[in-house]
Amino acid sequence: MPVVRLASDDPAWGNFEHGNCELEKMRLYTAKTIGRSAKAETSRNEILSAAANIMRRHGYAELTLRNVAAKVNMKAGSLYYHFSSKDELATEVMRIGVEAVERDVREALDQVSPIDSEQRLITAVHIHLNALLRSSEFVSSHIRCYPFVPDRVRFELREVRRRYDLLWLELIGEFINRPARGDEVIYIWHILVGALNQSLEWFNPNRHSIDDYARQIEIMLRQFRSQRPL
Amino acid sequence: MPVVRLASDDPAWGNFEHGNCELEKMRLYTAKTIGRSAKAETSRNEILSAAANIMRRHGYAELTLRNVAAKVNMKAGSLYYHFSSKDELATEVMRIGVEAVERDVREALDQVSPIDSEQRLITAVHIHLNALLRSSEFVSSHIRCYPFVPDRVRFELREVRRRYDLLWLELIGEFINRPARGDEVIYIWHILVGALNQSLEWFNPNRHSIDDYARQIEIMLRQFRSQRPL
DNA sequence: TATTATAACTAACACTTGTTAGATTAACAG
DNA sequence: CTGTTAATCTAACAAGTGTTAGTTATAATA
């Protein structure tokens, strides 16, 4: 019946399970494992994953400690053994998210020639989209919930976020041969980030292709370069 | 200190007042005024505006009946004289939003040659951006809160939203000379809508220019056409 | 096995939420 | 001025929130 099939038409919209990249999670989790027993570490990771899942699917408003606890067969109060507050839990989920996607992008860029600025930007687009839409609920929960999270949480995340933002500004600056902090680069950055991150609200893995979408974004990006002298 | 000034760095982020387009509001409100006294109508409109303001600035989770009531010097219970539920209030705010921006875009398109598909698309971009970032909190609250609103509210809005979506698909289809329902058009539509609507999260009227941003979007759009035969 | 630290539970707290019924005021008709 | 309708308030409700203190069960260590 719907002429255009919108994400919002799908009853299961937003309820897809992401591929379980357990290896990736492990790498992230263990990065900051200090003085925690194996069992505590496992529980903590389950809690983080459950929280990320709720945040990605239903938004920050639906992230309640009782919801999270139920997903890991615990009671709300038990979560305080692993996190000192709801804010800390949310911060940790989102911190894992940015750090994951930044690490993935940087690792992929290491395999690309430093002077091929077009291939570098395109690579970053692919990696970011895959993290967002396929591999990591930590990434998607961060992107989806950041604007609605309490001030304190946003404040805690400002440095990791800025690092990732600067990476993009530099990639774009190199690509269009302009200063990374000029208005031009910044506006293009906003266009690109908007196109990438809004996909969370419509992308349906059963109906859409990450690569197809990334290809259209590549086409768009080339225009910004072709408008300018090299 | 921040290298790149992000919206989230600004303490007043999201707290800008939109230009008071009272005339526009009147046109919208009165469109469905049936069997309501002048006083009731005024109160109802104040409630709608207050709700839209909260939704745009703080998101749907912060929209509480007590918050809204306080803004219009009422008590929470009094709102039930004008709306039968919180859902109905939210639905009405968002319905006004889509209908407003769709009407604005269509009226502007009436002034553009039907065969100048580039100018038509560019016009729509400008009108949409201005509604979103400057003139209407009903539009911005809709865009910002739609993904987080209860299912019932989204269901109520599906028709008005689809009408507006189809308008864009047709504009893009004409512009790149492709069927409005093909994958190509739909992906470009998602890119464009993402770039437009995400601006809600970073745009700061004291620091950015709507026209500058719209111009960058124009550059982007031309690439999609130039890639194809006419 | 006995002891101890770990990890979870119970049950409540103070508070906020949407919503409702009934009382109260304000505006207006006769 | 009187009576009636329209508009708002009061005060509570049941449900849900983050958080805490005290308790129990589990697991590791001696």
UniProtKB/TrEMBL annotation, chains A, B:
Pfam family, any one: TetR_C_24
Coiled coil: none
DNA-binding region, residues: 64-83
Gene3D superfamilies per record: Tetracycline Repressor, domain 2
Keywords of this entry: DNA-binding, Transcription, Transcription regulation
InterPro entries for the chain: Homeodomain-like_sf (IPR009057), HTH-type_TetR-like_transc_reg (IPR050109), HTH_TetR (IPR001647), KstR2_TetR_C (IPR041490)
Location of the HTH tetR-type domain: 41-101
Keyword DNA-binding found: yes
Matches recorded under PANTHER family: HTH-TYPE TRANSCRIPTIONAL REGULATOR BETI, HTH-TYPE TRANSCRIPTIONAL REGULATOR RUTR
Annotated protein name in UniProt: TetR/AcrR family transcriptional regulator
Organism: Marinobacter iranensis
Lineage: Bacteria, Pseudomonadati, Pseudomonadota, Gammaproteobacteria, Pseudomonadales
